[in-house]
Specification:
The protein is an alpha+beta fold. Helices cover 18% and strands 20% of the residues. It has one domain: paralog of FGE (formylglycine-generating enzyme) (Alpha-Beta Complex). The longest helix has 15 residues, at 100-114. The protein is globular, with a radius of gyration of 17 Å. The relative contact order is 0.20.
Length: 253
């Protein structure tokens, strides 16, 4: 088994393609976590025409990192935690009903089982990956009302206001990442700060501020399209659970 894992790792490196990492060796298709490398770069974070917490727009340089192509699914969560807290059941649906603390527990157990080092994204990494080189409200443009783009309260999809959609149901963004807009809110690691004054400019986690509230990004199946823009910010107590809250993972290179 160990020899097979080494050979698989060499093959992935040779092909320079995304590799699947799961809780068991070999990983099954249902529980594998597919990661893709986001290139380093700089971008303007925030929106001076948005809410006060999106200001001021500031330049951020983000080192290259890996991101999960999809939101963590219920099959992936259950393979590690042996439970499924989700309201809308389905192996390929995003896990939801998870609070920030339970996510930390999941990541710790996943890392132990796989020998990998998964983590949550920083808020800056999240926005950088969501924008994926674009400067418009959404990675595809300014208009959210398009049934082929995302799942939100007023997006026009078959899942709007009803349920989560299977991960990867819509087109990937220019970086090759799916569902950054809509479906479920995604916890990030950062503490809440009410504006970007003194925010880090290097892509790292903002670990100071109101840490009794944590940041979420991306909007959900139950929220308005305006909340799933690349710059929109949300915050909840780390104890909050809901059928509209899920996660996405990252790794350092």
């Amino acid at each position: 088994m160990k020899k097979t894992s080494i050979l698989l790792g060499l093959l992935c490196s040779f092909l320079l393609s995304p590799c699947l990492v799961g809780a068991e060796e070999p990983a099954t298709q249902k529980t594998a976590i597919e990661m893709i490398t986001i290139p380093s770069g700089s971008f303007k974070m925030g929106n001076n025409k948005g809410y006060g917490d999106e200001k001021p727009v500031h330049q951020v340089s983000v080192p290259s990192f890996k991101i999960s192509i999809y939101e963590v699914t219920q099959a992936q969560w259950q393979s590690v935690m042996k439970t499924n807290p989700s309201k809308f059941k389905g192996e390929n649906l995003p896990v939801e009903g998870v609070n920030w603390h339970s996510v930390q527990d999941f990541i710790q157990k996943l890392n132990t089982q796989t020998g990998q080092k998964f983590r949550l994204l920083s808020e800056a990494e999240w926005e950088y990956a969501a924008r994926s080189g674009t400067t418009t409200r959404y990675s595809w443009g300014r208009n959210a009302i398009d049934e082929s783009r995302s799942n939100c309260k007023d997006c026009g999809s078959q899942w709007d206001r009803k349920t989560t959609a299977p991960v990867g149901s819509f087109e990937a963004n220019p970086f090759g990442v799916y569902d950054m807009h809509g479906n479920v809110w995604e916890w990030v690691q950062d503490c809440w700060n009410s504006d970007y004054d003194d925010a880090p400019n290097d892509g790292r986690v903002w670990a100071t501020g109101d840490c009794e509230r944590r940041v979420l990004r991306g909007g959900s199946w139950a929220s308005k399209s305006s909340t799933m823009s690349s710059s929109f910010r949300n915050k909840f107590s780390p104890l909050t659970r809901g059928s509209y809250i899920g996660i996405r993972l990252a790794q350092d290179l």
